[in-house]
Amino acid sequence: MTFTLELILGIILGIILCFFGYRLKKIAFAIAWFLIGYTLAAYVAPGLVHNLMPQLENPDLWITVLPLAVGLLLSLMGLSIERLCVTTLAFIAVVAIAIHQFGFSWPLLGVASILGVVAGMIAVSMMKPAIIIITAVIGAQGIAAGLLSAIAAIPAVAYMPILVVLAIVGAVFQFRNTKNVA
Questions:
Q1: Taking 70 as the threshold, does the pLDDT of residue 182 lie above it?
Q2: DSSP codes, 119-147
């Protein structure tokens, strides 16, 4: 088992999103956008820093700071534009799950993108259920990916069953606990 601070934080944020996403929707949007920004920037930062900015004195510091800064920037943007957030999060959830489950290929990305756009349109037309389902799925995705990364004994084929069970449990929990919340 290898639990890093990043992994533990990802699992904790996943739990918050999965089970309390609608009740804390502003915070959930901020967390979701932070995770998206952080993940994208963490992927790009090493190449950007080493290739485009080789003159920097402390590149490791920048590789650490850039993902945090991009995550915070997207987090702030996510707080202010709720409908765009819901649409984009639905799209990202569909595409991310498809790529994680089946691997990357251009045809898969095309099909997943089309399904993501449809999911985004449906999500905007039904905001409360969409927010609950999206936050449950994204939170479950974070928990499942974190557990698979941390615990080597869990086989990779267990990702989708873990994701589905956690997403269902999280969504049911949220629907039951937000009946009177607007």
A1: no
A2: HHHHHHHSHHHHHHHHHHHHHHHHHHHHH
